[in-house]
Amino acid sequence: MLYTVTVNPALDKTVEIPNFSVGEVNRIQTMRADVGGKGINVSKCIAVLGGDTTALALLGGSVGKGMLAFLQQQPHIEPLSIETAGQTRTNLKIIDSVRGVNTDINEPGPAVSGREFADLQNLLLERLQPGDIVVLAGSLPTEAPVSLYRDWAVRCKQEGAQVFLDADGEPLKLGVEAKPDLIKPNKEELEALVGTHLLGEKDILRAARMLMKHGVGRVVVSLGSDGALFCSSESTLRASALQVPVKSTVGAGDSMVAALAYGSMQRMSWEEQAKLSVAFSAASVMCDGTQAPELKTVKKLYKKVVITEVA
Ligand SMILES: Nc1ncnc2c1ncn2[C@@H]1O[C@H](COP(=O)(O)OP(=O)(O)OP(=O)(O)O)[C@@H](O)[C@H]1O
Ligand SMILES: O=P(O)(O)OC[C@@]1(O)O[C@H](CO)[C@@H](O)[C@@H]1O
């Protein structure tokens, strides 16, 4: 089974403001709301591929209740939540279609008690079976122990599950100590993780290989419109991003993680996983907000992905 864990989910409010200007009055042209947070987005994308996931999340208040009700209606997703006393956050995504830039304004998330974290962890551990995949993704809410991902990853691995970690900052740095089976930093997250500026592909690959030497199974480095690098013990692959009309790049990384988790579960080859993640993330940037793309778009784009092996 595939499990996604979102300890800091969010209702994503995406607003379109052409020529968004800091310090000025800005008028919203269009707006939409999506049930999000990184792990939940991964579940939404895997559902598009026809894969089943259990989406574990901490949800609270009226926002959390609404999000749970939405998830309960989704085919292929079994939501499992612990109700928190604090209100689930609402994150603002500003899309400036004129300048072609996105601005994320993310709330820190509610204070979560030790009991609430422990209840969610128990819910996960009770169910885990050897061979399962657990995706731990996103930021930690206020007052969470910074070692949460490391500690949970260790426990999941003890149960025989594979752990995919998509986080940044200190939670990622500590999480790597648990030797996750896959991490998917973008360039900035990788730079922060290895503590050095990475100038080009060679530097990025050196950093990724160093992490693999320290026990991380596979490292996928996403490079936005420059594509991605896929490093495993099997091979190192390079993919350019596909040229597509871009609506919102928010959540592109989540669709990549979804494709990798689904592909691993289906025992796809490393090259097929790379192709699916590039096609899926390209389809995702063509969508408004943080909604999952349609399967027919992914299938069309899949045929266009070019993968080259890095010597
Ligand atoms: N402008 C774009 N055009 C086509 N594909 C894109 C574009 N931006 C991103 N992608 C695809 O999405 C993948 C992930 O993007 P990115 O590196 O921005 O992820 P991220 O920083 O983790 O994003 P987020 O945290 O918002 O999910 C890229 O490797 C690429 O395949
Ligand atoms: O604040 P975090 O947890 O790092 O990121 C949260 C978030 O930006 O990530 C998703 C896109 O990747 C959105 O659904 C959500 O709002």
Automatic annotation (TrEMBL):
Question: What does the entry list under GO cellular component?
Answer: cytosol
A single Pfam family it belongs to is PfkB
What molecular functions are annotated in GO for this chain?
A: 1-phosphofructokinase activity; ATP binding; tagatose-6-phosphate kinase activity
- Residues in a coiled coil are none
What are its E.C. numbers? 2.7.1.144
What pathway is this protein a component of? Carbohydrate metabolism; D-tagatose 6-phosphate degradation; D-glyceraldehyde 3-phosphate and glycerone phosphate from D-tagatose 6-phosphate: step 1/2
Known catalytic reactions? D-tagatofuranose 6-phosphate + ATP = D-tagatofuranose 1,6-bisphosphate + ADP + H(+); beta-D-fructose 1-phosphate + ATP = beta-D-fructose 1,6-bisphosphate + ADP + H(+)
Stated role:
Catalyzes the ATP-dependent phosphorylation of fructose-l-phosphate to fructose-l,6-bisphosphate.
Q: What is this protein called?
A: Tagatose-6-phosphate kinase
Q: Which organism is it from?
A: Caproicibacterium lactatifermentans
What are the recorded Gene Ontology BP terms?
Answer: carbohydrate catabolic process; D-tagatose 6-phosphate catabolic process; lactose metabolic process; small molecule metabolic process
Q: Which family does it belong to?
A: Belongs to the carbohydrate kinase PfkB family. LacC subfamily. Belongs to the carbohydrate kinase pfkB family.
Domain Carbohydrate kinase PfkB as annotated: residue spans:
22-293
What EC class does the entry list? transferase
Which keywords annotate this record? ATP-binding, Kinase, Lactose metabolism, Nucleotide-binding, Transferase
Q: Which PROSITE patterns does the entry link to?
A: PFKB_KINASES_1, PFKB_KINASES_2
The record, for InterPro entries, names: 1-PFruKinase, Carboh/pur_kinase_PfkB_CS, PfkB_dom, Ribokinase-like, Tagatose/fructose_Pkinase
